[in-house]
Fold these 3 entries.
Entry 1:
Amino acid sequence: MKVLKFGGTSVGSAHTINQVISILEKKSDNEKVICVVSAVGGITDKLLNAGRLAQSKNKDYKEAFLAIQRSHLKLIDTLIPKKNKEVVKYVEDTLKELKDLLDGLFLINELSPKTTDKLLSFGELLSSYIITETMKSRSIYAERKNAQELIVTDSNFTKANVIFKDTNENIKTYFKSANQDITIVPGFVSRSQLGEITTLGRGGSDFTAAIIAAALKVIQLEIWTDVSGMFTANPKLVKHAYPIKQLSYQEAMELSHFGAKVLYPPTVQPALDLNIPIQIKNTLKPEETGTTISSEIELLTKSPVKGITNINNIALLTLQGSGMVGIPGFSKRLFETLAQEKINIIFITQASSEHSICFGIDNSDADKAKVAIDTAFENEISLHKIDPILIEDGLSIIALIGDNMKNFQGISGKMFSTLGKNNINIRAIAQGASERNISAVINNNDVKKALNVLHERFFEVKTKQLNVFIVGIGNVGEKLIDQITQQHNFLKKKLKIDVRIAGMANSRKMIFNEDGINLNDWASQFHYAEKSSLQGFFNKVVDLNLRNSIFVDITADEGVSKWYDNYLKQSIAVVACNKIACSGTYDNYKKLQDLSLSYNTAFLYETNVGAGLPIINTLNNLVASGDKVTSIQAILSGSLNFVFNNFSDRTNFHDTVKRAQFEGYTEPDPRIDLSGIDVARKILILARENGGVMEIEDIDNKSFLTEANLNSKTVDDFYKTLKADEAHFQKLYASAKTKNCQLKYVAEYKNGKAKVGLREIPEGHPFYNLEGKDNIVMFYTERYPEQPLIVKGAGAGADVTASGLFADIIKIGNK
Ligand code: ADP
Ligand code: ASP
Ligand code: MG
């Protein structure tokens, strides 16, 4: 004999009921089958809602009733086209009885636990009747047996306790003489010893099935539902969760107690007592393996953590005070008080100082608990021995569960560091002595993120999802998007990094998608986008609360750079090619470095110097490995290099600068490049990376421009002065030429001092032949005293800048 239980979603429509019937027919081929059914999907909630409306004198209860009536009538119409009058009459009479009950509740303005049970029992009674009659109409040998005639309980309404002696007797007696192939039993409903209608608690149909399975010592209990087993985490919240093949009874119990709703917690015990295996299966995908819960699990050492669960809407209560220290009996009184109020404690921690005790209960019990505890400890509170109880709500518990966790070190470390890295604040921690469970209390709105990062950490070790938010969609931004699109699959496969762009903004509009923006048509999405603002962008990134979030600044805007500290404080990494933050005041630079350290969040800006060339990275590696930099000699301006490579006595300076600007090698305002300020900022950043405490004013910048050039008010004016001062530039050229030198704009950092300026570079010097818009940096160090470590290559351009940004993003992924 087998016991199968089908949940609400499995009997939610004619289609799924047909599927249930086909499963039952197959199962009953060679043995008798008992089938426990829930109410039609969603009906229990609807009944409760109708009852509450009626109780609060809200006439909408009538419409709520009609909706319940419609669902059931529609089911019999579809399932039993040729129905006899008796069937219709039974259903109509039952619905009439329900209607009368609701009318009564409306009149007396009351909904007691006892009446609640009566009200909710209609769900299972109707569904079991309709399913049985459908089978009979198809000549299947099925009968219904009302569980209220089998399961006996006490009078603890809404969650009655089973009286097993009587219950087991009833079940055994009935099934001894039952002849039908299939017996349909309504789950959840029961009857007290005094004959009152009771229920086993929300989700209790699973328990009904377990009780019957145990009473009859069947060979297997099957729980059929809408998912293919007990998953590694709630599949509705974690897309990558997958079914766990095997679980021990203890693991299953722990998972269900800590929120894996797929199994009602008390279900496991009766099966465990008799060693009856439980299978969890999917009604719509019966071919899938599902989960087996038994005592014979193979030791799967792969992951000591079997599942991650969550219970939402928890309130955390803290009882504290110096009067608690060393005085026995506080906890006992506290828990007795809660027990008297029938408040279930889900979570407890106590610091070893005994100065405070902290416990988690359902939000809805919080007020009741406060009143009861403050009353029970009134005396101690008035003597200031303890404080009035503290309540924090809006919290959730998340838990890692697995039998084998105790044999592995460092699991809690991994759990908490993963949460910490993602800025998930932990309010309290508990670990059972069995080490089968490590739980933490966090904010409700962090649950989805927490489950996903933990799932990634413990079950998908391999892929790490990065959520990128880009501000500034110009040339470089577009190139970065192209590169991410192109490399997406490769990165996922080779580096196990899943890079998604979850938000983008230009100065006018911004778009977001928490599942990643579709990169094939991102541009068209801007048409319907919301107006952008830096505050709005920040708020949205924080609200989305996605794991491994990275803010990427591809602007040259000071306003944007002012937001970095806010992002870092939310543990959101910052990647910037904007160099304003790193070359602004030292205090600000230092503050950002410190935030990055204290929030353990990356702040990367490799592209601040030499675009995609690994200059900052190389310097950081030299310093980190203990080398000492004695000097840095560099050409750091692609624009100036381009200008001086093309300027000669056969061209003129004005036209050469114009051309550089036209080809995109200068800033929109070429004065920033030609004045040397851009190079000064870059050498300043390198000096700071080397440990130098410096401001931009400390950099010796002797300009090769004339007073008139420097004093020009606008870009147009500037060009005019360049034309007027052509002779000055020709003189610079001629001087270099006579010495057989090239003009190069050089930055130098030596003995803690930095300077930038135009120099005449002799033939043979590594700078002499530097072409086009290339950059070169020579690091002279203790380990490279004569032959410097040289980094050289294209130092400007959208493509290489984008790839530098991309490299920073991937670096975060590899961390
Ligand atoms: P039924 O109506 O069949 O009793 P339930 O709604 O009670 O179904 O339980 C199934 C639901 O449990 C799933 O749809 C899923 O949303 C939820 N659930 C939560 N945690 C888990 C988990 N770890 N594994 C599977 N399902 C889970
Ligand atoms: N119908 C009841 C509920 O929704 C019992 C069950 O489905 O297990 O809680
Ligand atoms: Mg259920």
Note: The radius of gyration is 36 Å.
Entry 2:
Amino acid sequence: MLRIQTALPERYTNATPDELAEWTARAKAALGDRLLILGHHYQRDEIMRFADARGDSLALSRLAADRHDSRFIVFCGVHFMAEAADILTSQDQQVILPDLNAGCSMADMADLDAVEEAWDELAAVVDIERVIPVTYINSAASLKAFVGSHGGAVCTSSNARAVLTWALNPQNPSERRGDKVLFFPDQHLGRNTGYQLGWTGDDMRVWDPRLPLGGLDDREVKDAPLLLWRGHCSVHQRFQPSHVESFRAEHPGAMVVVHPECSHEVVALADSAGSTDFIIRTVDEAPPGTVIGVGTEIHLVKRLDDEHPDKSVLSLDPLVCPCSTMSRIDSAHLCWILEGLARGDVYNQITVDPDTAKWARVALDRMLAIT
Ligand code: 13P
Ligand code: SF4
């Protein structure tokens, strides 16, 4: 989705990194407890040094929901995260995204029109009351609201398993809420979680929103407990099984950990898969001397390597690119935002309209209650 970020004043574009750091620190100190800076793990180091708290999507949602005392929440992450924070905070808190162009290409792969169309098509084939919509947190607030108003829940990479168990409970059918989940927008997280819960490839069908009935026939739609929206993360989809194989050949005995937005073929070859917080814990807990190949965004991989001089933390793909939208948040934008706040000027506030926020909150609260 296109959002227009105004050009920064020359004060910021012409400043040196040291000047930006000094001005940011001064503005942050002036704002004191009124300010909370949240940093997702994929942010640049120049941003993370100013973050009051770091986390994965679940941890940052919880922090936003729990910090009632901060007037301004500057969210160093991407747009859907700032929207979730706005939904979970109170009316007198303002959530700010330092660069409005910090979106998520995966979140843009599902929109409300396409999901409503898919829902109508599904209703013509199955009992729609028995279909539970589940959206990955990497989605627009309008989709979270759709899910909330149709009996579903949000999930993150930390709790997708718990949310799918809540919806379909494959181990205990008497406790299931429905017969089928429409999972969007990331097919890979859905598939990797489905395999973890014991479903097979035939139980999971890809729903292609560009094709009639998602490109499936009536029987496939009726039989599959999991319908996976055809969406992906372009950063994580770059990782290939050949990367894991070459890495293991080059580093015998190495450990491999990947994010569940990677394809199932990659996850199957890894030692473990999980959210960014999980990846950090895995590296923290590895014995000294371990070589660890990581399949996730490069800023996090490099930071882990820097913070663990006794281990070797490497990207599985030597050419891996950063998440270009996360990288939009840089020290110039953060400084501009904080100096504005210190003067009383609020730029780039993210607001979700009250009706959307009401239903999106239902879906987010269900997720927080499940996990
Ligand atoms: P985490 O919730 O694991 O931090 O993932 C967010 C994300 O966008 C991964 O690409
Ligand atoms: Fe979106 Fe992928 Fe970037 Fe995560 S890494 S914010 S899923 S584009």
Note: The mean pLDDT is 96.
Entry 3:
Amino acid sequence: MRVVAIDGPAGSGKGTVCKMLAEKENLVYIDTGAMYRCVAYLTLQNNIDITDEDKIVELAKNADIEFVGDKVVLNGMDVTKEIRTMEVTKIVSPVSSIIPLREVLVDMQRKMAESLDVIMEGRDITTVVLPNANYKFYLDASVEERANRRYKENTSKGMSVSYEEILENIKARDYNDMNKPVGALMRTDEQVYIDSTNMTINEVVSKIREIIGRD
Ligand code: DC
């Protein structure tokens, strides 16, 4: 099995880079942030208060999350767009702090990597989910550059959220994601650290390909 694990903060380019690497290296791409987003989406859809941890964990246990090509399919429905709205983005970090919920999703993620060659990205993949991955990376960029990338991405999709709102959201998520009691985003000596602030996507992809062995 070939297993590549990538962690990094919101907007560091993990999604784009992993999609390209998956295609070039014949790996299955697993976006674990999308799984937390699916649970946050279900929480909103079912009008569940984000402090009601038991109900949220129950939702996750009964959720069927699949990655079909470029699409995220939740309980048989394509929710690729719905899980990226600002409404979902605002509650996803606190939802992802619920420890028993993390246990449910980490279990699902490990099962997905058991029998497939995968490239999996998130916040705790190199540390908790797949600590024995063949390759581990931490992808970073300055907070302003990350907000700028998200702003451009949203604008190109016709979503009208201001740069300031995105910057504030990313700062709040960084803080929450790095200070969670379980599954916090952190740097370790085992990761290859890549600062992509002044790199193009293609440069980042090439650098990772050099390390994972084929170019
Ligand atoms: O990668 P993303 O921005 O789509 O992730 C959404 C949220 O999910 C993010 O704020 C942190 C959380 N998350 C997590 O706690 N653990 C992961 N492995 C992936 C994401």
Note: The pocket of 2'-deoxycytidine-5'-monophosphate is lined by residues 10, 32-33, 36-37, 92-93, 96, 122-125, 173, 177, 183 (CB under 6 Å).
